[in-house]
Amino acid sequence: MHVGIAVNPVAGMGGRVGLKGTDGKVAEAVERGAEPRAPDRARRMLDRLAAVAPDTAVSVVADPMGESTVRDAGFNPVRVVDPFGGETPHSTATTAAHTAAAVRAFAGLNDDGAGDGDETGPTDSVDLVLFVGGDGTAADVATALEGTEVPMLGVPAGVKVYSSVFAVSPEDAAEVAASFSRTERREVMDIDEDAYREGEVHPELCGVAHVPVADDLQSSKQTASGTVESLAEGVAADVRERDGEGVTFVLGPGSTVGAIKDELDFEPSPIGVDIWRDGGLVVRDATEAEILDALGEENVIVVSPIGGQGFVFGRGNPQLSPAVIRRCDLRIVASRAKLDDVRALRVDTDDPDLDAELAGWVRVRVGKFETRMMKIV
Questions:
Q1: Rounded to 10 degrees, what is the CA torsion of 156, 149, 52, 44?
Q2: At 335, which CATH number?
Q3: Cβ distance 307 to 221 under 8 Å?
Q4: Both 46 and 98 in a single domain?
Q5: Which tens digits make up the pLDDT trace of 98-140?
């Protein structure tokens, strides 16, 4: 098997600092103290790939888009393109054109489109393009592969991850890459991040790509149907019962938890994390650092899984980092209709040990009083 690996080094950087994405916001993310996420996700995938398919031939693009990370994982890759003209820019200087140049080189298309890139290796097409990034990166990869039958597979590292071209986790991406035998065409979706930051979600179809067929691929995000009014009323009543006890409630993003925020009678951030304590809003649209600062001795996260995918953590809520999760009790809420749409719940926290700790059967609140048992896998 021959794979081409491209890492978008800025993917997901805007998440924990409250930017809801990184498109056009890299400088602001860095100013807020954001740390790169994608290289660690890439290394997790590579470590598993080295374990399950150590003889994999790997093509890479010059740093900071993955070459050193691949070598550090024990592979001896061939650099097929240097879209930076022999210079190594700071990771925040990479662009969609650099991704396109890398992917087209992987596919044996040597008109790299970057204008100043150097082709430095063989030009035979790879069997699979493995990219590390989010929906924006997926759209760039799909566009570069348009007109070819080269399949693509995403290692999720972005904030939103709406497309159905991603593996569930970095390790799953390696397993799929090592074992797939056929592909199918899947949709690549992206959203306008500026509208998303204002609470409006409008996914748009950016392309259709060949993707390996496997169980460990996520579905596209779906909008939950059915009413959540009674659920929100019940949870809000429970929250208010704790007023005056100093309990900090970390209320996650999304429409289901948004209904709870409405019941608590404050103006929520519909796609952000809000913090409530003792009858009042403490922080609206909190970053990871603001959440950690606000936590007390007793803390509760209230979060709803993503419809169609079942992710409790790791898609759309990176502010709820491992450091936050470890200091909180977990309360999962969802409409019955949303749970009917998923086989199991999932987590992808960037901390494999925490993912393992969270795995197992959990109680999910589905009504004013009713609950349902679901398994986190």
A1: -20
A2: 3.40.50
A3: yes
A4: yes
A5: 999 999 999 998 654 433 445 555 558 999 999 999 888 999 9
